[in-house]
Amino acid sequence: MKIRYFDHAATTPVREEVIKEMLPYFGVEYGNPSTMYSLGRNAKRAINNSRKQVARTLNSKTREIYFTSCGSESDNLAIKGFAYANKDKGNHIITSKIEHHAVLDTCKTLERQGFRVTYLNVDKNGFINLQELANAINEDTILISIMFANNEIGTIEPMEEIGLIAKKNNIVFHTDAVQAIGNIKINVQKLNIDMLSLSGHKFYAPKGVGALYVREGIEIEKIQDGGEQEDNKRAGTENVAEIVGLGKAIELIYNEYDEYNKKLKTLRDYFISEAKKRLDGIRINGDLEKRLPGNANISFENIIGGELLFRLDENGICASAGSACSTSNPMPSHVLTAIGVEARLAENTLRVSFGMDNKKEDVDYLLDKLEGIINTNM
Hints:
This protein has 13 helices and twelve strands. Helices cover 40% and strands 14% of the residues. The longest helix has 22 residues, at 257-278. The two termini are 27 Å apart. Strand 3, helix 4 (101-112) and strand 4 (116-120) form a beta-alpha-beta unit. It is an alpha/beta fold. The protein is globular, with a radius of gyration of 21 Å.
C-alpha cells in the first residue's frame, strides 16, 4: 500500500541533497571540531559554514547562532538561560497559553524556582491580545516569549507588533519559530526578535539538531555543564554531520521559498474548501488567512478522533490529532481548549500538514477516505 504522508508539522523526510552533504562527516571528515589538527579544523569550518547559512536566512550575525540538539533544547536554553543570567534585573516572564510544551513546561519549572509567569489568553483564532500583552508588563518583566506560528492550528502571531512592544519597554523578546522556519521569511532585525528557536527536522533536515539565535549583547547562562563549545553557551561535542545537514536544508528551503509555499497554500486551500463541501459537522480551527501555508486543523462532530486516525492509517494515510510531542497525553489539546473548542470536539480533531512530497491526487485520496469514514459513522 502506498503511504501518503500528511504530518509534516511533526517531522519531514530528509532531502537527498541534505544527506549527500552530510555523508562525508560520518566517515572521511570525522574530526572533533575542538581539536587543532586538520581533521578538526575541517569539522569546525563546516560548522561555521552552517552557522553562516542559518544567519543569512534570519538576517542575523553569524556569531549570534548557536547549535543545539532540537527546538526543545533551544527553548530551554533561551528561556532558562536568560532567566538565570538576568534574575537580578527581574523575575517576571510573559508567554501565551498556546505555546509548545517546551516553552510552557520550562516556564512551569521557573515558577517553581521563584519566577513569576503571565500566560496570555488567545482569541478564537489563536491570536494574543496586544493590549493584554502591554498591560501585563511591569517593572519586573524581563522576557516575552511568544511562538511565531502555532504547531497545531497554524495561526501566525503578530510578530512585528510584539517586537515593537518589547523594544519600547526594553524587554527581551524570544520566539519559538520551530514551525515557522521554511514557511515564513523571518528578518530578526525588522521584527525586533532578540532570541529565536528552530529545529532542523521541520524543514527536511535530520532529527536531533536545532539552533538558537541570540542577539549580540544578550546574556544567557548555559544550562548544560561540560566543555566550552558554542562560545561557551552549550557544552558537548558538536553533531557535525547533522549541523551540516541543517545548514544545507535551511539554505535549500529558502532558495525555493516562494514556489514551495505557493504549493503548500494551494493544497491547503483546496483541502479546506473541499472538506467544507463534502464533510458534515466540521469546524476549521485557526485563522483562515494568517496561518501556516501547509496547515489545516479540523474538528469533527461525528467520529472519535482516535478511531479516525486508525482508519486513515489502515488506508495508508499518516496524519495526527495535534502535536506529535503530546500524542501520549489523554487530555484535550491545550491549544484547542484555549481557543474555546469544547472538550468533545477537541478530542475529535485532525491536523493535516502538507509538504513538498504531496500532490493534488494525494489530497483527493485523503478527502475520499475522509468522506467515506465520516459518512459511515453518521
